[in-house]
Amino acid sequence: RIYSSDALLVSAITRTAKQSLALAKTLKENNPEIKIIFGGAHFTVKYEEALNNGADIVVLKEGEGALPEALDTGFDYKKLSRVKGIAYKQEDKIILTEPRALLTPEQLSSIHPNYNKTWRKLGYSVIETMVGCPLDCEPCGVTSMYGGCYRIKSIKWVIEELKRINDIGTTIFYTADNIAGNPKHLRDLSLAIEKENLNKKFGVCQINSISLRNPEVVKSLKRIGIKMVCVG
Fold it and tell me: How far apart are CA 107 and CA 91, in angstroms?
């Protein structure tokens, strides 16, 4: 089914980049007409690597706006040149289009992911409550991906999304790069989650070590249902 698709979208971090490139090569060998769009943190920085190894387009940084616009072009070069926030290869030349503005918190809070039947069979679910991190730690790639901008999705959106994914898996991963970037918002969010009784799954989140020393932050994590934190 994948070989006969019109387009394949691949998001990768550095750890998964090698197998993603191998997948693109295999697909092109089986169907030279298939269009492949890469995105994610690794290829935002290493877009040449993707374009020189089978990718037709690379979506840079956030893809919620650029991706549908790129697909709507039908891969026409003239139309692609007007899509902000992408890179593509025209003959042997790599083209970088104009940078795209990051989505606002209001825009982020208007988009809910789509889940098919396959997702509902997974052992875990994921939710993105906020994007970016207010810190700029030297070894971290989050700032280069999100521009040092910390944007919070509305509590209303988070509650709606938690209800939508409540039947997916027994573990939930809060994918925010730093869930405690705004401690007050985290407290308000935790109270809302606790009130709606949406804290029963085994919760996992990402956080920085300084925030984890704050007793109020730890209380908020407990209310959310966090049992494991990923630091650094």
Answer: 35
Q: How far apart are CA 126 and CA 168, in angstroms?
A: 9
DSSP 157: H
3-state DSSP: the chain helix, strand, coil percent, rounded to 5?
40, 20, 45
* 182 close to 203: Cβ distance less than 8 angstroms: no
Beta bridge partners of 202: 171
User: Cβ(178)–Cβ(140) under 8 Å?
Assistant: no
Which of 45, 134, 120 is closest to 87 using CA atoms? 45
Its pTM stands at: 0.86
At 175-197, the pLDDT tens digits run 999 999 999 999 999 999 999 99
The predicted structure's pLDDT at residue 138: 81
CB of 103 within 8 A of CB of 64?
A: yes
Tens digit of each residue's pLDDT (9 = 90 or more) over 66-83: 999 999 999 999 999 999
Rg (CA), the chain: 19
The label of the residue with tokens 């982020």 reads 108
Q: If DSSP codes are grouped into helix, strand and coil, which group holds residue 98?
A: coil
Burial 200-219 (b: 16+ CB within 10 A, else e): ebebbbbbbeebeeeeebbe
